[in-house]
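Researcher: Here's the sequence for the chain we discussed earlier.
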Amino acid sequence: MSEGEIRLRLTDVHKVFAQGDRRLEILKGAQLSLHAGEMAALVGPSGSGKSTLLHIAGLLETPDQGQIEIAGQSVVGLDDAARTAIRRRRIGFVYQHHHLLPEFSALENLVVPQMIAGRSRRKAAEDAGELLRLVGLGERLDHRPARLSGGEQQRVALARAIVNRPSLLLADEPTGNLDPETADGVFDLLAKLVRGTGVAALIATHNLELARRMDRILSLQDGLVVG
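Model: Thanks. This is the structure I predict for it:
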């Protein structure tokens, strides 16, 4: 485990969903800490709460009870505007489906989030080009997603997730739609980006082979984080 600063801390996190007259208790006091430069796999069967935990860590959902700290800042009780600002500044997301903007080029898909964060278009384009070259897409800057392979699209998505230099990277099955060889390449790139930038990464996956290559494997069992 990295000895860097703690980038994510969840303490006694509870989450309950109502289904008609039933209460479905998904998280029952989940706890974890994640350090800078660390990659942790989050595993568990479908329905165990992996996506819910990621959504809470990413400030997309609020817990019913518990504490969340992002890069040392407590975020429980903040209003929507403050939570959105932290997401933009501190958190990067990668999903199984890349969610690239189809009408924009690879370069523009990285420029847009930077401009939303307040950077000038010129500086955003410079940083986007540099990062896309780093992930091996220097010849694809002007290509729209439809002209990229699945692996190339996911590399754009990885670059987009870290282009604003977040403290925390959250990934939900980032290689789930890729063939094994492409998945290995995308994972190697993800590991390189995590080590190179010092971002802390929590990666939900069903791929136990990839999970074993990370620093830690965390398992969701009966609403708790184990391991």
